[in-house]
Amino acid sequence: xxxxxxxxxxxxxxxxxxxxxxxxxxxxxxxxxxxxxxxxxxxxxxxxxxxxxxxxxxxxxxxxxxxxxxxxxxxxxxxxxxxxxxxxxxxxxxxxxxxxxxxxxxxxxxxxxxxxxxxxxxxxxxxxxxxxxxxxxxxxxxxxxxxxxxxxxxxxxxxxxxxxxxxxxxxxxxxxxxxxxxxxxxxxxxxxxxxxxxxxxxxxxxxxxxxxxxxxxxxxxxxxxxxxxxxxxxxxxxxxxxxxxxxxxxxxxxxxxxxxxxxxxxxxxxxxxxxxxxxxxxxxxxxxxxxxxxxxxxxxxxxxxxxxxxxxxxxxxxxx
Length: 320
Known about the structure:
Blueprint: H1 2-58, E1 65-67, H2 76-82, E2 88-90, E3 103-105, E4 126-128, E5 133-135, E6 142-144, E7 174-176, E8 190-196, H3 199-203, H4 206-219, E9 230-236, E10 240-244, E11 253-257, E12 273-274, H5 279-292, H6 303-313
Parallel strand pairs: 3-7, 8-9
Antiparallel strand pairs: 1-2, 4-5, 5-6, 9-10, 9-12, 10-11
Helix pairs in contact: 4-5
């Protein structure tokens, strides 16, 4: 009996020890949990800080692209619950960096784009495998880097020529499209100046002011397009007047359309002239307009018909 009691007590102590041991382990693990949680939180904050800095450095400035919010739901479920609308205000051709927007060109080579989603190369694309591939930040596809665009990576995984590549440094940049981007040669910039020469326009000085303004733009080369720029001068009252400008003519010739609805294209080629080639004749025409219509007596105009005529004039060039 004594032996049995001794064995029973020993077994009871062993059982208590077995039960208390896990409790001690739990207390030991719990004592380390807050420290582990703090380390994880610190690491997450550091990663989030690095992401914010990257976005601020390479993202498009808000003067060009401004979202309705800087904070977005993390999941589709959360977005459905919050029902927060999202919109983006975009200002094309803005000057986001206090100067002209950076312009890049690939010359005669194709533009570097993601094959599946057609996204352009940008600062958020990741170059991998020593620069031979790049990972699209839009769809996640891994694309080969063309030979003409290849550059090795440094110890930080960045291209060694990154600072010389505006498309890898700026969130907003312009791309000069190559020949592969267009199915036809680019059309020249065309400017139609439709000028009211009615009696009221003359008396209020509108004709003279308009002619002088266009003249200043021509003289100072303010019309974009350089040597390809074309211009047509059209005046109107109750009739529509077109002007033919030729190098062998001392004065432009006026063509009057008395019934513009019945007049169909094509128009004479010398109505739409190259500014670079006929700048002197164009300035001469602008100087003579106030004198030509000084005695105007027409009080009505045919603006809508004049606009339709101008539309017909550039159909063969393209545009809408």
